[in-house]
Design brief:
With about 425 residues, the protein is of the alpha/beta class. The chain has 13 helices and 15 strands. β14 and β15 form a beta hairpin.
Length: about 425
């Protein structure tokens, strides 16, 4: 046990998870690569949990942060803040929500908390619909709506949460149906749930479930849900903390795969927009955002230095068409991994969109989750010079692959080759 790990164990919580039998200290990064304290170089296919969205040490972001730090770092929302207004204007315009207002937080957890506060206040209801296998953050209220037992340490909650089907396409009672029948069955389940409760405030849903293993429904499910929700005035909150900013390649926002019934009432975002700076937020229709009748501020949400990072990062993303790159390079990577998976009995499915890819592992010859194999592949990939993530629900285990959106074709091939060797060494 190295000295830093010993110190970590001595002062930080036991439940603060670390990857790897011998945990890494990452000291610096550049582009799609990072280095550890022993000088080892790794291709980064997890990006600080989907947070390093464009590239490590992106010069445009580094320059913007440095220049802003030389002027003023922070003032709180009690004062006018030009970078915050400018980033809010950009995000509102990109959101697809009419008459949008933006409130900045410091994390996706806090963004989801804010969305729940707005929804329950606006609707005068503390009942919330959420998806099975979902994850929405670490706070008390976010844990209360998380449909993933591994990340929910308490059943206590300020909210009454009702869980509906649909977030996982290839498991559960509707898995054997075709896409149209699957959507119809999930809609009927939603209607049945609504028949047994007082009208909920909102449905909160990740277009692609992140911690749950990058699972998703067929395109159009949430549009079909929206038709049912609209009839009762129930709001739709799209949790885009992991799917936003073009990561899925096909769309700028994950909800756009379900756009037939219009945009969500609220979008929550975080992670990639700051490229490592602590930015989260909520986009909402003005009447919803403005429904609070008490004073509120944010001490650290929207602080100048993080807004400078977000503006520079978003500008780079759009000007360099990283969404298009995610679509092109991600498509190649998914097909490469599917070709590998077809030869390995322990790989149940390769799924995802753009540069948000899940590889579900099972015990060979069964449909049973294999978390030990997922950990072994994680270790073997690291030995080969590749960092990836893992996740899954109560009956699944999946590898999570989400590189920076500037990933090159050569780097995708390199990462796929390392991952193939790691999978073959495990199976």
């Amino acid at each position: 046990m190295n000295d830093l790990y010993s110190r970590h164990r001595g002062v930080l919580p036991d439940w603060l998870a670390l990857y790897y039998d011998e945990p890494l200290e990452l000291t610096h990064g550049e582009g799609r690569h990072v280095w550890d304290s022993d000088g080892n170089k790794y291709l980064d296919f997890f990006g600080g949990i989907l947070t390093t969205m464009t590239a490590h040490a992106l010069p445009e972001v580094t320059k913007a942060v440095s220049e802003q730090a030389g002027r003023i770092i922070h003032s709180s929302t009690l004062y006018l803040n030009r970078p915050m207004v400018e980033l809010a204007e950009r995000i509102a315009q990109l959101s697809g929500i009419p008459d949008a207002r933006v409130f900045f937080t410091t994390s996706g957890t806090e963004a989801n908390d804010t969305a729940l506060l707005l929804a329950t206040t606006y609707r005068r209801s503390n009942t919330v619909l959420a998806m099975r296998n979902s994850y929405h953050g670490r706070s008390f209220s976010a844990v209360g709506i998380t449909g993933n037992r591994s990340w929910s340490p308490t059943s206590l909650s300020p909210l009454q949460t009702l869980y509906v089907h649909g977030g996982v396409r290839t498991r559960g009672p509707f898995a054997g149906l075709d896409d149209r029948a699957f959507i119809d069955a999930c809609v009927e389940d939603l209607k049945d749930v609504l028949g047994h409760t007082r009208p909920p405030a909102a449905l909160i849903a990740e277009p692609i479930q992140g911690v749950g293993g990058f699972t998703s429904p067929p395109d159009g499910l949430y549009a079909a849900f929206r038709e049912v929700l609209n009839a009762q005035g129930i709001l739709w909150i799209a949790d885009e903390v992991q799917t936003g900013w073009g990561r899925t390649g096909d769309h700028f926002w994950g909800w756009q795969a379900h756009a037939r019934s219009g945009p969500p009432d609220m979008i929550t975002f975080a992670k990639g927009i700051g490229n490592g700076a602590s930015i989260g937020g909520v986009i909402a229709r003005a009447e919803i955002m403005n429904c609070l009748d008490a004073n509120s501020i944010s001490t650290f949400g929207g602080t100048q230095i993080t807004m400078a990072a977000g503006l520079a990062n978003l500008t780079y993303l759009v000007e360099h068409d990283l969404q298009g790159n995610a679509r092109r390079v991600g498509g190649l990577l998914i097909e490469r991994l599917r070709a590998v998976a077809a030869q390995l009995p322990g790989v149940r499915e390769v799924r995802g969109r753009g540069l948000m890819i899940g590889v579900e592992l099972v015990k060979p010859g069964t449909d049973e989750a294999d978390p030990q194999a997922a950990s072994a592949v994680l270790e073997a990939a690291r030995e080969g010079g590749l960092l990836i993530g893992k996740g899954g629900g109560h009956n699944t285990s999946a590898l999570r692959i989400a590189p920076p959106l500037s990933l090159t074709v050569a780097e995708a091939e390199e990462g796929a080759a390392i991952l193939e060797r790691a999978l073959r060494s495990t199976y």
